[in-house]
Amino acid sequence: MRTKMLVVVALLLSGINSVLATPQIQHWQAPSGARVFFVENRNLPMLDVAVDFAAGSSFDPAEKSGLAGMTQGLLDLGAEGMSEDDIARGMADIGAQLGGRIDSDRSGISLRTLSSAAERDQALDILARVLQRPLFPEAVLAREKTRLIAGLKEAETRPESIAAKAFGKAVFGDHPYGVSPSVASAEKIRRDDVEAFYRTHYSADAAVVSIMGDVTRAEAEAIAQKLTGQLPQGGKAARIPPVAMQINTSEQRIAHPATQSHILIGAPGMARNDPDYFPLYVGNYILGGGGFVSRLMNEVREKRGMAYSVYSYFVPTLEPGMFQVGLQTRKEQADEALQLVRATLRGFIAKGPTAKELLAAKQNIIGGFPLRIDSNKKILEYLGVIGFYGLPLTYLDDFTGKVDKVTAAQIHDAFKRRVNPDAMATVIVGAPEEKAEPAK
Amino acid sequence: MRAKLLGYLLFPLLLPAFAAHAEVFEQTLRNGLKVIVKEDHRAPVVVQQVWYRAGSMDERTGSTGIAHALEHMMFKGTRSVPKGEFSKRIAAAGGRENAFTSSDYTAYFQQLHKSKLPLAMKLESDRMRNLLLSEVEFGKEIKVVMEERRTRTDDQPHALLNEKLMAAAYQEHPYQHPVIGWMNDLQALGASDAKAWYQRWYTPNNATLVVAGDVKAAEVFALARRYYGVIPARKMAARRNFGEPPQLGAKRIVVKAPAQLPHLVMAYHAPALRDPAQDWQPYALEVLAGVLDGNDSARLNKTLVREQQIASSAGAGYDSTSRGPGMFVLEGTPSEGKSVGELEAGFREQVARLVNEGVSEEELKRVKAQVTASEVYKRDSLFYQAMQIGQMESIGLSHKNIPLILQKIREVSAQQVQEVAREFLKDDNLTVAVLDPQPLSGKPKRKMEGAAHAH
Questions:
Q1: Contact between residue B316 and residue B294 where contact means Cβ atoms under 8 Å apart
Q2: Chain A CB contacts of B446 below 8 Å
Q3: Residue A30: helix, strand or coil by DSSP?
Q4: Cβ(A199)–Cβ(A193) under 8 Å?
Q5: Active site residue B71
Q6: CB–CB of B33/B314 below 8 Å?
Q7: Alpha helices in B13-156 (DSSP H)
Q8: What is the pTM of this model?
Q9: A274-298 confidence digits (pLDDT tens)
Q10: Where would I find the beta strands (DSSP E) of B289-416?
Q11: Which domains, from first to last, does chain A contain?
């Protein structure tokens, strides 16, 4: 492959447009209180369902970081009347696929199944139990904790993980968006914590149910209720605290024997419902989001051959997520690359995009809109984002129009206000050796 | 997909095509270019893929990595489309594009609104014969490839382990070389190597064009004739096909790299699919991989990870569809406090169980249910459907075999699964590779600066 594809980010950032038929999204509230988003599509005999909660990693208690992920991971490892193996076999027997997903805001479970009655009903029966009657068996928790801790120890040796962890901390300080699980925090997770986290965060009125595929509206209504009618009452979930937007400039150089330096530069960026969302989104396409044609790619890779991957992105979350620029490059030229990236970023913020760049960005984003909604899987993802972040039901219809309205002046202005090159965190893991020594 | 190894990890089970296979149309142009069209009218989009039957297995010792380096150079311009323009024009059309190189083939693709197919064809056909390959551009791009190698292999302990495993497992067959190439070879490659490679393999009679999406086959064929049909065929030099002499006893290697956890890979030589109608072993091996690792309740996860807790992860892989020989792989990471030796013993116990007791009808049924369901799910991805067609054609089979392969997998018996386990999962066939984790040299040293820095 010529480039790494940042799939998760692309999904979060992606929008959609309306020259063509956009999916007809139906929305209602189930008797349970869950909010439901449904697109009926009979082209394929299959059904995709996802149920998401405000139960992502930023709801972790600081000293028990990893709890949200553990809770989510244990859901399908034992439920009323079913062992983990019963659940796995029950799904495999009918070719159904259960998936888990978690990020800093959201936690959820997704299901893909054939839509024929026997398969669909069995898959939904199991999903309903997994969501509403999980057991969190003590022995399974102990085993999964051991596996998590092993993974964390491994991550502590990986340059990309070391960089991401240090960078999160540098950008967000003690804010939950910047906290990563550690061996110590994982060790503290007990069954009571998991149970309590589940009871607090997995409630019907906090649930977003996305349904896509080969069922009728009436069937979808029954499915949504079946999956959420017996969720816990819910407790007072803490809100994610506000993010301190201005940070001090920092630079960390962390030694590592890798051949490349991993460089990350950034600061708090924008929220999903940010008024500057579209100018920043389109602007970032030009800066470092647009595959082979971005400024960063052109300067660092195409002109100088200094990196395989170089990118920038915003993570649009409930509270402002991170703005990040990243690359990996041969250690010996890390400082040169760092300066080049900083200069490119500064240049973009100082002057904004050219008219030609803006036109090219719009052509790609608007012209490529049909590719964003060309499969059930992609549409299901949009339903989850629209539902969870409270975007308008017309989000997909409006998307290209909003992109089209963005001006070069708006991008220039938004970047100037929101991205301050003099207040950014930099992390370099595998820094050039002589520079990685302590200063004194 | 850049490596054989990545190939089988990505596609653990062959998931062939079907019910909708009637919508696949095929025509071969006079210059030998095979054009295959899969109509799918769910969304107004199209994917174009051009597959060349040339991959790293066609390279020679000393110039490994040239197939992949040329793939990068294909974006560096032609006489009429200057460097960078290809990507700009596709982007301006709202398209996405990329390319990938494997041991067996090299492929290029664009995904766009259906109205932009002529543009994609114009650009792709242009670089099929008019590529400029300057020393200056090659010099820059090979540095990018070296960075790619560092990112993907040199600094990734598991990738490094797999690279060295392949180098040990194959004595003669070029699968012993990594797709991305050895660093020494990358340093030695020049524009003339790229030119020679391009001249030798990039010709319509060595390629397959796959178009899938909201198109009409007749219109696609007409467009293909217009854009690709004018490119003359070139006589292909004979292809040297390498074999692999029988392995006469187990091999073992150890790879030391900075990491926390050890890792174990056990790779057994196995056959690949050659005759879809007559062969049966490759299908049985696919099912065997499914029984071991096809779902969360499959044997390796159930016994080694959950019950015995010897492994924190354990998996199996086999890919029947390759130009070269096949390989059946078991791999895993021991749990904290367990050794690689204990994990290897655990894998061996599983192999012995297969050989002595076989598999149950229930397990077999479960694997087949998943194959059947995957056939439906696959239709949600246009790209994957096109990919499957291109892959089959590029390894010397036909996309028309896809339904047959599916049927054959459904017909595999428990006895056949047991037989292939007995025949291929034996020590004389085995290469064991162990990652021996090394501490990062000393503790990470950190330096914080509060003040602004110079630029």
A1: no
A2: 252-254, 438
A3: coil
A4: no
A5: yes
A6: no
A7: 66-73, 85-92, 117-129, 135-149
A8: 0.92
A9: 999 999 999 999 999 988 899 999 9
A10: 311-318, 326-334
A11: 26-228 (3.30.830.10), 250-435 (3.30.830.10)
